[in-house]
Amino acid sequence: MSATNIPLSIYHGSQSGHVKLHEVVGRELGPTEVALKISHSGICFTDTHFRRPSGEEGKNDSCGLGHEGVGTVTAVGSATRYLKVGDRACGNCHQCITGYHQYCDKTRQFGFSEQDQGTLGNVSIREEGEAYKIPDAIESKYVGPLMCAGPTVYQALLNANLEPNSTVAIVGVGGLGHLAVQFAKAMGHTVVVYSQTESKRDDAFKLGADEFYTTKGVEKLVLHGLAEGTREGVNALLFTTSEVPDLNPYVHVLAKQAWIVALTVQFTDIAVPFMPLLMGGFKLTSGAVSSRQTTHRMLDFCAKKNIRPWIEEFPLNERGVNEAFDRLESGKIRYRAVVVAE
After folding, report:
1. Which residue intervals of 234-342 are DSSP H helices?
2. Structural element, H or E, at residue 151
3. pLDDT in tens, 94-141
4. Burial 70-102, CB ≥16 within 10 A → b, else e
5. Rounded-to-integer distance, Cα 216 and Cα 246, Å
């Protein structure tokens, strides 16, 4: 493939919500960029925020959808260093040098820059430093979700600096949560799942959960052994739901100095019960994916521990992409949608 004339066919959203193909002709490859021929792409709930762009219908105010792509390198820029044609792959400030490119002031983030780009299409063009060579042990269909949900929850668990056999609570069994349960269990922790209803109880235990509690209508959550004094409580509480719920019911099950980690994309403020936070010494934090080094560690961890997302596959065509979005937004996906190039 020529590095100076790369045609892009990328699915974009519309005001009606119908996802349709957009063509971009003649995209030039930069000196440090690589072109990936997409074979598979995950669809994340973050994508749904850009499915219905604001603005007048017919104007090109939408962005290319998809940020969980995997494929084969078909062209490389003149100054690339380690990726080569045929590889399977999915800065200059302090954040980039230390590997935390997601916090760089000049980073090119999905939905807010390069709006002709997306992984729901034929080709994705990325900086070489933003692409990762994939371990042979992981099939391509699993890679997309692992590159978004995977590092997000893996980094959160590492940042909590937990001792062996700590208690980790996962709120929500969905795209993030079902991977968080697997990671926490593989790291040797006791895994507690809080979910609104009983509908995901069986899945939670299949994924590795040790305990399961429902939260709908509950003002004060419980944890077996806490009232009896036989355990100290939850050491790390990960919210993996589409929105952060009321925190008040959860503070009762936390151990002193526990971590509260909000791993969701929402555009509204959250209310914090400050006195319990203060008196318990709780640490409230969040995070976007992970550093480059941690992402590599996460991929190796998944390969060694046989951690895989639960996926539903759809064809990479207009009907398949729209069906995947519809099932995702209706909460029916178990637990990541992946589109496959035809």
Report:
1. 274-280, 292-305, 318-329
2. helix 149-159
3. 334 345 555 555 555 544 456 667 899 999 988 888 888 999 999 999
4. bbebbbbbeebeebeeebbbbbeeebbeebbbb
5. 11
Structure tokens, 186: 């593989």
Q: Do 170 and 194 form a contact (C-beta atoms < 8 A)? A: yes
DSSP letter for 121, please. B
Whole-model pTM? 0.90
Task: Name the E strands within 137-210.
Answer: 167-171, 190-195
Distance from C-alpha of 244 to C-alpha of 263, rounded to nearest angstrom: 8
3-state secondary structure of 336: strand
Torsions phi, psi of 238, nearest 5? -105, 120
Helix (H, G, I), strand (E, B) or coil at 258: strand
The one-character DSSP state at 36 is E
Token digits of residue 172: 């929500």
Q: How far apart are CA 5 and CA 230, in angstroms?
A: 66
One-letter amino acid at 121 equals: G
